[in-house]
Recover the amino acids of this structure.
């Protein structure tokens, strides 16, 4: 399962991409509507990805706490502007990561009734060998 999550693959077949572009692409974070391999619709109902806000919130809190403690240990500074600059800068850099993986985790772990179907990933070898 971990390679499917890390590579942002479909939660049902683990073959098709969820996003159209790489994470730090200049063309943005365009999410596909359906899996290009098995055809699963990613947004199951309107507003489905609002649930990803909670995952993203957990990511940001973990990042901010880690960064604040790390900045305190590394710099020993008590200047609040040091912390403000570091925390805002790094969270801004990590924003595409948070957006992408909050939705991927929502799809893979937090959607009831959505499981991996190994029979759907069959045929990917045929597709890959046809591309060669
Ligand atoms: Zn799929």
């Amino acid at each position: 399962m971990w390679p499917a999550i890390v590579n942002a693959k479909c939660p049902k077949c683990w073959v098709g991409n969820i996003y159209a572009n790489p994470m730090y692409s200049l063309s943005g974070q365009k999410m596909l509507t359906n899996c290009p391999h098995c055809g699963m619709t990613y947004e199951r109902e309107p507003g489905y990805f609002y649930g990803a806000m909670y995952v993203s919130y957990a990511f940001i809190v973990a990042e901010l706490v880690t960064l604040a403690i790390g900045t305190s240990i590394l710099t020993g500074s008590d200047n609040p502007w040091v912390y403000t600059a570091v925390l805002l800068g790094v969270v801004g850099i990590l924003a595409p990561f948070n957006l992408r993986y909050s939705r991927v985790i929502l799809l893979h772990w937090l959607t009831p009734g959505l499981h991996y179907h190994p029979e759907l990933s069959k045929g990917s070898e045929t597709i890959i060998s046809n591309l060669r």
